[in-house]
């Protein structure tokens, strides 16, 4: 907050933050932690992928998701994102990523 010369989060912008851009939650956490399972649900894939369109990254809440399998060839949103943005690593997976 010292960099931004304000304590009001809605005033965090380039002008108040010495040229730094402060992004909102949707930039990196478009899915709330309470909905972490949506990243692994093939039936909600279109809705989830749509909500990720304007994100710069995603947080998949590893504390909750670390034992959830990502099936290669499925429509699980996490797998679709990995296939698109980490294609060389994703291509090494056989049945599960």
TrEMBL record:
Alpha 1,4-glycosyltransferase domain boundaries: 2-92
One annotated GO biological process: glycosphingolipid biosynthetic process
Molecular function, one GO term: hexosyltransferase activity
Keywords for this protein: Transferase
Pfam families in UniProt: Gb3_synth (PF04572)
Cellular component GO terms, alphabetical: membrane
SUPFAM superfamilies reported for this sequence: Nucleotide-diphospho-sugar transferases (SSF53448)
Family: Belongs to the glycosyltransferase 32 family.
Protein name: Lactosylceramide 4-alpha-galactosyltransferase-like
Organism: Sipha flava (yellow sugarcane aphid)
Taxon lineage: Eukaryota, Metazoa, Ecdysozoa, Arthropoda, Hexapoda
């Amino acid at each position: 907050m010292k960099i931004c010369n304000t304590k009001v989060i809605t005033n965090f912008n380039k002008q108040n933050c010495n040229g730094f851009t402060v992004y909102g939650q949707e930039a990196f956490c478009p899915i709330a932690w309470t909905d972490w399972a949506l990243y692994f649900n093939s039936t909600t894939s279109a809705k989830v992928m749509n909500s990720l369109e304007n994100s710069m990254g995603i947080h998949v809440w590893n504390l909750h998701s670390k034992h959830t399998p990502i099936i290669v060839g499925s429509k699980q949103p996490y797998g679709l994102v990995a296939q698109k943005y980490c294609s060389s690593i994703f291509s090494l997976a056989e049945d599960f990523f």
